Amino acid sequence: MSVKGQPVIIIKKIKKVHGGHHGGAWKVAYADFVTAMMAFFLVMWLVNQSQEVKAAVSGYFRDPGAFESQGGLGVLPGGNGVDPEAAQQPATDVETAQKVLEDAADKIRQQLDLVPSLASLRDQIELSVTPEGLRIELVDEDQSSFFDSGSPRLSGVADLILAVIAQELADLPNEVVLEGYTDSQPYSSNERYSNWELSADRANAARRVLEDRGFPAARVAGVIGHADRGLKFPDQPLDARNRRVSILVKHEGMTSTF
C-alpha cells in the first residue's frame, strides 16, 4: 500500500534469454582451413624462387643440424638461418660423383678404342651416365652376338670387353649390379629352362668374368635376370638388340632397391 500523496514506482525487470551453447567445432574447421591456405601459399612461394633458395630449403630439411651452429644469409633477404653455400654441399657431392662416373666412361671408351679387334663392335657397347649411375650395355645384333645362341657361354670378344671394363672399374669404390635381358623368342630346348634362367645365367657369366679379371667380388651388389620384361625395343620384341647384358655402376652410397 502506497503512502498517500506519493507516486507508486514500478520496477520492470527484463529477463535475458541466452542462446544455447554451439560448441567449438567451427574453430577446428577454421584452423584446418588456415593451415591448408598457409601450406598452399608456401608452396606457391617456393615454386617461384631461384635454384639457390630451393637448394637452401632442401638442404635445411635434409640435415637441419648442419645449420644449427652457423649464421647464414637466410632463405628470405635479411634473415638469418639457412646458408645457401652450406646447402649447396649435397648438390656439389652429386656433381662430383657424376663427374667420377663420366670420367670412368671416357676411360673405358678410350681403352676399348685401343683394341683394333673391337672397332667393329663399338656401336654394340653403350655407355651412359643416368640418375642411377653409369650403365654399360653389351647389346647383341643379328650378325654379332656376345653369347653363343641360346647359351650363357660368352664369346671371346665379350670376354675381352669385360676385361677392359673390369680393369677400369676395379679402382672405383662403387658397387655394381649386373642384369641380363633377352628378346621375346621363347626358349624351346628345355621346358624347365626359360628366358628367365637364360638372362640370369648370362648376367652371372658376366659377373664371373669381371671378378676373374680383377673386379672385387665384394662390390657386386646383385645379379638379376629380366627375361624379356625390359625390352629395349618394345615394339620389336624379337629384335636381336633386345638381348643384352647391362652393368650398372651405382652412384656411391646408393642402396639397392631390388
Please provide a written account of the structure.
The chain has 258 residues and is an alpha+beta fold. It has a domain of 152 residues: 60s Ribosomal Protein L30, Chain: A, CATH 3.30.1330.60. It contains 6 helices and 5 strands, in the order H-H-H-H-E-E-H-E-H-E-E. The protein has a 5-stranded mixed sheet. Strand 3, helix 6 and strand 4 form a beta-alpha-beta unit. Helix 5 packs across helix 6. The longest helix is centred in the middle third of the chain and has 25 residues. The chain is elongated, with a radius of gyration of 35 Å. About 6% of the residues have low confidence.
Question: What is this structure's SSE topology?
Answer:
Layout (H helix, E strand, L loop, with lengths): L24 H23 L3 H12 L21 H4 L1 H25 L11 E6 L2 E7 L16 H14 L6 E6 L13 H18 L7 E6 L18 E7 L8
Parallel strand pairs: 3-4
Antiparallel strand pairs: 1-2, 2-5, 3-5
Strand content: 5-15%
Which spans of ≥5 residues are poorly predicted at pLDDT below 50?
A: 69-79, 85-89
Strand order within the widest sheet?
A: 1-2-5-3-4
Question: What is the average per-residue confidence, as pLDDT, rounded to a whole number?
Answer: 82
Oligomer type:
single chain
Tally of contiguous helical segments: 6
Strand elements, count:
5
CATH architecture verdict of the domain at 99-250: 2-Layer Sandwich
* Euclidean distance between termini CA atoms: 102 Å
CATH topology of the domain at 99-250: 60s Ribosomal Protein L30, Chain: A
Q: By helix and strand content, what is the structural category?
A: alpha+beta
